[in-house]
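MODEL INPUT / OUTPUT PAIR
PAIR INDEX: 1
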Amino acid sequence: MTPVATGRPRDPAIDAAVLAATLGVLRDQGYTGFTLEAVAARAGTTKPTIRRRWPVRQDLVVDALASVLVTPPVPDNGCTRCDLTQSVRLLTEALHERLPPGVLAPLLADCARDSRLHRRLVETVVQPSRRAAATAVRRAVERGDLHADTDPDMIVDLLASAVYQRALLDPDAEVPVPARASVDLILRGAAVDFDRLVRISRLPAEERHRH
């Protein structure tokens, strides 16, 4: 959370109320309609109280988003196809189910003018899912499922691009990005033996690690 000036100890209850109120205002009014006055009224506090805690409003929004995101687990199903599919689904869940709709694109544009804010937004919202997915790709390379010269970051970029495009350009889309189809499209080019990976993905979970 963003550092603030020293003074009286912060009341965690006020912090929690403000973060919850921020999410509520974002869901009801969107980012363009977001105001600290609306947050203060909903949280039962005052605008100066919020300003003392979050001098920069974008930091408040990022902290509110972080409060509903979780650090995704690194998929480990003993199955490269399953691991990458799970990675795409975890990213989809984070962007489309946990975050208020229509907030990410204008927030990203707003933070782009300030390198600190941009770094913080990316580190908070984007990087946790990317790191988990990249680890899953590296494991796939280590087990010999993907070519040795596979670039994990490039694979993650390719897999995540459709999810980010949907979140940024079409946040109201009712049909999620087809995770399995996206993964299969990439694996056909990166896999040493794609048909073998498909066979493994169809095995019971307890048998996959034997292959």
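PAIR INDEX: 2
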Amino acid sequence: MKHLLSATALLLGSALAHAQSAHWTFTYTGFYDHEAAVFLPGMQISGSFTGTDLNADGVLELGELNSLTIGSMDYIACGTRSNAYYHCGADSFVFSPDKGLSFSLGEYGSDPEGWRGGGHLIESGKMSYEYQFDPYTTTEHHLYWTEGTVLSMMSASPVTPVPEAPAWAMLAAGVGAVGLWRRRPAKFAFLVRQ
């Protein structure tokens, strides 16, 4: 019985092993406005992201994100609405406290005929680009990252832990092994009695 309790405690401990989900906010300040031909020191692009480093390599990648929000748009959640005439989503994302933040995302589209459309694309470290067009006008706005662009980031306290799939698999395998171990002595005792 003592061995059964020890095995069960060990299995439960391994099942509770989990990766910690974390939330970060970020702000880029200072951009070169191409159309106005001026550096705007107070111009900001702000956002946040939440994710879990599932493979524990110290780098948060696109597939490990739960959300990536800039303004009011969550570029992870909006991906399900993409179709032939509308695209929304993050195309790349990498973050580590040592190496910094890098991402590419956007929302853009047009009518089926291609007469009217617009969008907003951001590639961190390079450019934020907005455009609109119709048969009569086209407008564009470019903000470029420069050496004067400053990134500030803040980590919020960790959010709810997310159990890893391997932890659940270990629990299932362990419970099965304990079950087989418990059945074996009972079966053997039954055979000896006969």
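PAIR 2 NOTE: The chain has two helices and 13 strands.
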